[in-house]
Fold this protein.
Amino acid sequence: MKDKYSKILSDMIKIETVSAEGQTDLRKFRKFHTLLKKKFPKIFAVCEVTDYDGSLLMRWPGKNSPEPENQGILLMNHMDVVEATGEWKYPPFSGEIAEGKVWGRGALDDKGELFAMLQAAEELAADGFVPERDIWFESACTEEIAGHGADEISKMLAEKGYRFEMVLDEGGMIVDEPIAGAKGTYAMIGVGEKGFADIKFIAKSAGGHASAPPKDTPLVRLGKFMSYVDRHEIFDVEISPAVCEMLKRLSASMEGASAKAMANPEKFAPIIKKVMAKSSPMSAAMTKTTIAFTCAKGANGYNVIPEEAYVIGNMRYSHHQGRDASIEAISKVAKRYNLEVEVIDPGLESPISDWNSRGFKLIESGVAEIFEGVTTSPFVTTGASDARYMTRVSDNCFRFAPFKVTDKQMSTIHGLNENVDIDSLEPAVEFYKYIIRNFDL
């Protein structure tokens, strides 16, 4: 199977499906659709397939025809990828098979997962398997640009009254030592994700010539504002119930005082907050709202004091503080520096799913069945996924890609030399087969 699986994924990577704001060419996605139909003919033959402006929604009819509000499972993975610049070991859209890996943009984010999902369904359909209830598949072509694909599909499903018992999208993976000191291998299952908002902070002045600058010009005020936010804790820091559950599970592979504290996170919350804040940016981000300043603009001329300058902040708001309170907190700081605040996109708040639900337990049992020695743990993802839109149609949206990856491979996602181990493809396919076969048992 290794050669077959790696060749299919390689061919998927070879079709460049970069999505970019304002310039997404649907022709390349339709070319990709044609490839998918060629590679996975059995599942496309049994599914009802709808093309939503390049995004696909597929329904595999089950033996029973439940009411819309009693749907079973929706499996998701996106087909678009981010751009691939810089010097790569192998060309980013070559799908090179070398060194025991498949190389190229999308190998892990997210064509590897899309391959495993569809290959699992393909093999089950070829064997004559028919699910008890309908199985749905969704693959958007706009995930990387927070586009309208999954958004519009979820709105359509909600308008028609569809409710799914479980949604499974990309997200966490199987990693060693997910936090410092947790000496084990864990399947990290995202039970929710932080919402995100794009905010513009605007500084205005009378402008003027750069030869005689007054104090506190627009760029100076913006700089002081960003420096203050960078150096001070302006958002509420908490150990949420989901993070508490994660720490309790990870504590089993820890030793000494750390194990004791992590096993009792409510009791040792003040200490744990400090440890997570210093451990890594990722750990810190699990405990609070964050904001990163990503874009800026001043005058067009080098010798001109701008009448208006601005910076854009990408805010990822925590569940405990929420969108409105987080925006209010940053706005108060902006006001000190005489800045105007414009919320460009408030984002969508995504609730936490239940790690005691039947869906989570199915993922847990699938991991135990397929991946020896791997323990599952819930966590809150700090990045965004299309699953946030599906909270409109399901109370339990989980985020997990069934691949064992190293820290180095994780760093290649959206970076240089993205790759996936060939040996990880078959277990990933088997995991999706387990989910599909066992969901209604």
